[in-house]
Every structure is written in structure tokens, then in C-alpha cells.
Amino acid sequence: MRTWRTARYLTPAQVFWRILCRGRLLYSSKAPRRAWRRIERAACALPPADPGNALLAPVAGHILKLQQAVHGPHVGNIASGRFTLLGRTVDFGSLGAVSWRRDLGEGNNALWRMTLSYFGYAPPLLASGDERALQIVLALVQSLERQNSFAASGVFRDVWNPYSASHRLINLLVGLHLFDRHARPRPAKAETHAARTALLAHIGICAAFVARNLERDLQYNHLLKDYVALVVYSCGVGELPVAWRFLHAALPACVESQVLSDGGHAERCPMYHVLSILDLMVLVDAGALDEAASSRIANCLARMRRAVVAMTHPDGDIALFNDSWLGEAPAARSLANGGCGQRLILANTGYVQLRSGGDAAIFDCGACGPDDNPAHAHADFLATELSVAGRRFLVDFGVPTYSSGPLRDAARSAASHNGPRFVGVEPLECWLSFRVGRRGRAYRIAALDCAVATPLWCAGWQDGYAPIGASVARCLVLYPGAGLLIVDVWRGGEDCEAAVDFLVSDAWLASEAPCFKATDDNAAVAVDAIVGVLAPPVPAQYWPRFGEAKPASRLCVSPQQDDAGRWSAVWIGWGGDVPEKNVAAGVRDALLTAVDRAELAA
Predict the structure, then answer these.
(1) DSSP bridge pairs for 520
(2) Over the stretch 563-586, which tens digit does the pLDDT of each residue have?
(3) Which H or E run contains 519?
(4) CATH, range 17-311
(5) Parallel, antiparallel or unpaired: strands 548-558 and 560-562
(6) CA separation for the pair 367, 283 (Å, rounded)
(7) Is the domain 342-601 a CATH 2.70.98.70 member?
(8) CA-CA distances (angstroms) from residue 433 to 206, 318, 379, 402?
């Protein structure tokens, strides 16, 4: 039944392509030599890519910016076989000892192996123009080819996953372009010519492989990356090859299917939103698409660059809702194109930011992702992140792993996010690494009849607890220069315990008092339960960067039961008095009225 609850959201097209795509890869694993020869023939039929083509210049600028941000600090260690990826360093001892499919002891740890095979370190390495860097990259590509024939078990899940091959194509071709641009003038060596020839041959294999195995079943960021890889190869050719001219229509349709009308990304992951901005910048500047396609993509890009402001903290980087983490892309501020308002609303995406100077609350009140592929969804409905004086205070649990197991389950659970919940009940049926069966949804409340609320407020409710006859709702009110009032209400579910947890960043020095207090160099913050019981803080962890745990403090508030039902009111203050209980009660009453209207409308 769980499988049916997951699969029933797939579109007929996805089902068709999933059968076809998986069938092709299954055939390749059963007849690896024949499949490889087919890819070689397809690669030979492609027009050869020239790394010196001028169309690659603007593309290279975007890719180098990305890979410098991700790999720049660590590329100096690669010559000795030491790789730092996704917060984990693996020292193979030498280039010759690199094991592309090493079991790192974390279950199905495919992501680290995939990232190793992306060659994201190649552009900053080759941008040096040093011939030794070229030989290092060549040695790694040759090692990858030797160890990862199509006959290798599981190779299509990581090294020869179409998503991996797309990244590898982009990074190697851009890397060669950068090498040629920055190489010191000297007579061409035979070794240099041989290295470039071998790398271009592998790039051609990647292009043919990706073109044959486009991820039309997964769509979203995977299919977009496949298409971007083909466009980057086309930049080396000078135009789209005849067999790929379907991209003039398919690519803008792919982009428009995942960029919402408010500019948000359909997967509701701020990290993938930023990565998609970079992909769209590549497409717009590539010069390989026709004017109509480029114009449609440019329109989506402009909307995305405006929208990212709403999910950017005062420190210049993204909120960590769903599968998002820091360090996988340049800071969001460098890609944004829009001013910071006091109340920014992405109505379709389901994000709202309340902001006053260096204080900002970011609120999740939308869908967990697209119904036909919510792979990166977390049960973070009505979750809140908060920055005070420019530094993050309330933080998201983050992403410790993509490997299925207890830690992945915990990361996606409602208990790990800063939202109101029912203990032991999940609003999303998350399973394995990327599956979601039964799923609820959060909704923004657009109007609130409350005279005490400042203009800086937002509210929402979610129906993920409908199976137990319950719902939850939250209202945030930001008082500039003073603090944030958080009012939560629980309706129904009388047999289930209700709670709300808050994760406080380790950047703040915490102490216990009648209320929780925290300080840093710029501000002091106190957390008070106006209504409800605030338990003493307990040590916790969060993962702002993939796989890198940091200490935190977890605060748990138990709601109060009265004639209106269960509710809590928490004041996080840094410059003003704690509001009176009747102020919080006014917000609660207005919230309950708004939820009644919303549920009737639904």
C-alpha cells in the first residue's frame, strides 16, 4: 500500500519514461560490451566539441564561480589523492589508488561517489593553466574508465548515472576551455595534445550517454541538468547538433514546468533553487539556443533571481528547508536580483520572509514539493528560521545524509523541524531516501483579523494530520527591533500529545534562567513561553552543511489547554518587553477564525 500511495501521483508520461529509462540501463548492465559500443558509435557520430569555442566563455565564468565556491579550498590536495566532498575527506593515498566505488560504510552512500565522479574540482584545477593539472585530470578520467565499465555492479546508480555524466561533461569541457585560456604560451607538447584528445573523447562518450538516457522519468533538477550538459557540449560545437534540435522547444518547456509563477522552484528547496539559477544563467548566456527559447528561459531566470531574496537570510545565504545545505553553491546574495522588503511573500512556493534590518524570520507555509516527484521533501510544514542581528538563531535540522536509514528518516521528520506537531505522528509518509507516500500540505493564510498584529506578520496551517482528525496552525508577528511572537494552535487529535520544538544555533552562547537566554557579540536573546511550558534546553545537533554536524540547543514547548483548545505563545525577544498574554490571545483567536474559513473553503 505504501508503494501505491507513492506511485499514484506519477503522471502517465513519468511511468512510460521510467519503464523505458530503467529498461535501457538494465539492458546496458546485461549486455555491457554491446551497450558501450553503441555509445561509442553515437559519440563518433556527434560533431566534435572544440574547447576553444567562444560560446564557452560565458558558460565557463558561471561554472568556475560555482566550483570555486564548492571545491576551491581543497583542490590543492587532489594531486596526492585526497578529496574533500560533502563534508567528508577521503585520502586514497595517491592518484593511482583512487577507488571510484569505495564503500564508505554508510549504506547506499551513492552521493559521495557521484560527487567524486562529477569532476567539479576540474574547472578550478585546470583554470591554473598548469600542465600538471591537465595530467592529474587525465589520470583520474582514465582511472574512472578502467574501474567503471558498464559491467560493474551498480555503476548506473553512481558513476554512470546520467546526472553524474552530465556534471562530468560540463566540468571537463569547461575545464579544458579554462586550461586553454590560462595556459602559459609555450610550444605544444605531445603529452598535452594526447591529454586533450583523451579528455575530449571521454566528453563525447558522456554526451552520447546523456542524450540516450535523459531522465525524463525524474524530471525537475535532474532532467534540467541533463539538458544543460547537452547545451554546454553544443557550445563547444558552435550550435545544437541536428539530433538535439528538439531542445529549442523541450528546454524552455522543462524550465517553465519547474519555475512557479512567483519565481520559486517547484521542488521547494532553496539550495536547488540557487543551483537552478546557475543552470539558467548558463542556458541564457550559452548562445546555442534560438532567440525564442532563450527569451522564455531568461524570463524564468529573472523571476527566480527575484524570488531567492525571500529565502535568503541577512548573512546572505539560503534558508535550509527541505533538502538544502550551505556550501553547495555560491552565496544566494550573489545571485539575487531584488531588494529586501519587510514582508516578502512567495504565494505559490509557500515561503514568507519578515525582515527588519538584520532580523529576519523565514516561514514555510506551502507544499512539500511537486506531487509527481517530492524526492527532496521534509515534513517542515510551518517551520521557521530566524536570524537576529544578522546571525542565525533558530535553525533547520539540515541534511546529514542522503543514505536511507534512521538518520535520513530523522532529518525528514516533523520532530526535527521548528513547527507545531503531534508527537509520534507524521504529516508526510517519508520512506527510503527520497520516497513520499501519503502527504499533507501547508497553506498560507492571506488575511488575519487582528488589530494587535503589526504589518510584519504571516500565518499558515497544515492538513498533514487529517488522518487523526487534527490540524495545526501558526502565526508569526515580527516587532522590529524587539522580537518575534510565535503563536501555535492544535485542533483535534485529543489522544495525541502536542509539542513544538525549536533548534537554536551553536553560534549563540546559551544559559538557563526562568527563560532560555542566549548571547553573541552583537545581541542578547531571551525565549519566554507566554502560554505553555518551556522545558529546559537539551543538547542537540544540526547539519548546516551536508554531513557536518554542529552542536545546538533544543527547546521544547508544551501547549496549554483552555476553552479555546490547545495553544502556545512563545516570545523570542532581543530588544522589547514580553507581550501580554491578552495580545497573544488576540492573535490566537484571529488565527482560529482564519483556519475555520480556510478549512470551509477547502
Answers:
(1) none
(2) 889 999 999 999 988 999 999 999
(3) strand 516-519
(4) 1.50.10.100
(5) unpaired
(6) 28
(7) yes
(8) 26, 23, 14, 6
